[in-house]
Amino acid sequence: SPVVLPPFFMRGSIIQLADGELKRVEDLKTEDFIQSAEISSELKIDSSTVERIDSGQSPNAVLIQFSVGELKAQVCVEVLVEYPFFVFGQGWSSCCPDRTTQLFELSCAKLCVGDVCVSLTLRGLR
Amino acid sequence: VPVFPWHSLVPFLEPSQSG
Fold first, then answer.
1. Per-residue pLDDT at A75 exceeds 90
2. How many CB atoms lie within 10 A of CB A11?
3. CB-based contact (8 Å) between A92 and chain B?
4. What is this model's ipTM?
5. Which chain B residues touch A91 with a CB distance below 8 Å?
């Protein structure tokens, strides 16, 4: 349900990387996700490109269509407009960055069609 | 202070979720 956002997007939240290093959510870099996925025996990082952004069925929600990984599988997710995604080389981005910053004090860029987001998949799933 | 794992921050986008 896109109703409640998880607390770990709140500025100052402590995030543990796969190598055990601790970082604040606002300080995370693309490399942190890439290196953590490389270390992880179970998880693999995928590139998910934003193909479409439509208004969702729930209030304050959007429907985002991604093309995921090498196979460019089409996946749709419905999230609240302030839900932040991590864009490669850019950082946290959402469909309503002002709202994300207001709620989480997390600086945030605008998520746009064409942005490539970090996503995960289980190793060996395909 | 709670510590959250890195992989909770980004979505699992599995093809099986399409459609």
1. yes
2. 13
3. no
4. 0.88
5. none
